[in-house]
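seq as requested:
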Amino acid sequence: MRESTRSAELAGLTLLAPRRIVCVRLVLHFVVLLDDPETVAVLGLSEEDLSAPWPAPKDELTACQLLGERLFLAGVEGIRYPSAIDRTRVNYAVFRDNLRLGGSVLDLVTQDA
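struct tokens:
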């Protein structure tokens, strides 16, 4: 919830719509690690790119959104990226349409926030 609240604040929103928090078990084989400084450097991203406000201004995509689109089209299963709130934690974006044989996303716990 803290992540959602911070994202809303960065976007200038004062009221959050109801959220659903889902804990999942991931089995992924092809993941890009944006919490790895070497990977970020190879991709030409900066710390500012990783923490850019979202949503971007009208009709613009952030560097990370453009990268996500390219990675999806390249068949990547997911992206692990640092939390914007707590850099010691990570989040995942999973492209379910790209799951390979043996890959899975299993919802373990769901609760309304």
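Residues 19 and 113 are 5 Å apart (CA to CA).
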